[in-house]
Write a structure and sequence with these properties.
The chain has 17 helices and no strands. It is an all-alpha fold and 399 residues long.
Length: 399
């Protein structure tokens, strides 16, 4: 009787996998609380459906998943030294749990049907995010808590929309039935990033993805023309648009920071440079193993006495890892990024292009923010890494 009940539960779990995969990606875009609940349910589903039995095979066939798990393991090892409180240690471990979601999600997404469903839900979530942003901009829907016309933070939103613009341009070339639709979506994304939400991180990412797109799609001559077009657009934007104020402000803040003038850290860029400077001092103190998992906030407060701004993260993923885990942790994170670069080349053509774009987004985001530490970006990157790299041909399944 017990065996039959377990088999029935397992059958229900298997049948519900597709629905959970679909709803999870939409929840990442639209609801933080729902994404937390669904991430837990997906982990439970992974156990109940017995997909956990294929973990060794997944790690063997998908080295990206192995590197992600290795990086998470480094954070676990980091618990053994340092003197972080149990609260701070658990907080940090919980933040980086998205790393072990990569092999879990891959175990679902090796099924072609689920992968197809996930890409379609990514499109739906992206279009919904874009539409809501415009409704907020037109005053039809209330903006977020800080007054920006987007559901998430300006940084998060711009990352999502920049990558969707990149995706839409590729679909414009590949999807003959919906070329006009994807061209319109690309133009809306471009307008949204530069003229509506104005997230500087997303703007930098957008420029990088446009250049990457030119490399992926065009000949040398066509690519040079595309580069010139991007440069001309940026020059016109910076010269004539009042929406370029944040970029100009960022440049001015950067110049001001590196001059001995009063209150040079009050700007957002000045704060970032201050965070980075103190983070480098912390790394210098313990360069090999770092200060231990969960110790960043306490150690930063110790070393930055007298500074008006105290932070729990340095707004730089490389520094966040290196302060806590030292050189060995930083090397593992770099190994994870290199694995994304290397194995992207082995993917089918469409997924290869998306994986290369995703890597560019992650690297740039890691320079100015902490995308794996931050909740929404962390879940999004874990999902998208799994979605792209689950298409490795040796690991494909028709189940």
């Amino acid at each position: 009787m017990a065996v039959k009940a377990l088999n029935k539960i397992q059958a229900v779990a298997v049948k519900s996998e597709g629905a959970f995969i679909a709803v999870f990606v939409i929840a990442i875009y639209l609801s933080t609380s729902l994404s937390v609940v669904l991430s837990g349910l997906l982990g439970l589903l992974w156990l109940v459906s017995k997909r956990f039995t294929s973990l060794t095979e997944v790690l063997n066939k998908y080295p990206v998943a192995l590197w992600a798990l290795f990086l998470y393991g480094c954070f676990l090892v980091g618990l053994s030294y340092g003197d972080a409180s149990s609260k701070d240690a658990f907080f940090m471990i919980n933040k980086y749990r998205v790393l072990y979601f990569i092999p879990i999600l891959i175990s679902f997404l090796i099924t072609k049907h689920y992968r197809y469903l996930a890409w379609n839900c990514f499109i739906v979530a992206s279009v919904a995010t874009l539409l809501i942003s415009y409704l907020m901009n037109f005053g039809i829907v209330e903006p977020n808590d800080i007054g920006d016309p987007c559901l998430k933070s300006r940084i998060t939103h711009s990352i999502f929309i920049a990558f969707f613009a990149f995706f839409s341009m590729h679909k414009y070339y590949d999807d003959k039935n919906n070329k006009k639709l994807y061209l319109i979506l690309f133009m809306l994304c471009l307008h949204n990033i530069f003229f509506v939400v104005e997230g500087r991180t997303g703007q930098v990412i957008m420029v990088a993805l446009l250049l990457l797109f030119a490399i992926q799609r065009y000949s040398v001559k066509e690519g040079l023309f595309a580069v010139c077009a991007v440069v001309i657009f940026l020059m016109l934007f910076l010269s004539f648009s009042d929406k370029s104020d944040r970029i100009i402000e960022g440049i001015a803040n950067t110049k001001a920071y590196f001059q001995p003038i009063p209150e040079q850290t009050e700007s957002s860029m000045g704060q970032r440079y201050t965070f980075w400077a103190y983070s480098l001092k912390l790394i210098k103190e313990k360069p090999l193993l770092g200060h231990g998992t969960g110790n960043f906030a306490k150690e930063y407060q110790r070393i930055s006495v007298g500074e008006p701004f105290i932070t729990k993260n340095p707004h730089n993923e490389f520094l966040m890892v290196a302060v806590q885990l030292g050189l060995y942790g930083l090397l593992v994170y770099l190994g994870f990024l290199i694995s994304l670069f290397y194995y992207a080349r082995k993917l089918p053509d469409n997924e290869k292009k998306m994986a290369q774009g995703l890597l560019a987004v992650l690297v740039i985001a890691s320079l100015f923010n902490t995308p794996l530490f931050d909740h929404t970006e962390g879940h999004w990157f874990a999902y998208m890494v799994a979605l792209c790299f689950s298409a490795l041909e040796l690991g494909e399944s028709n189940a």
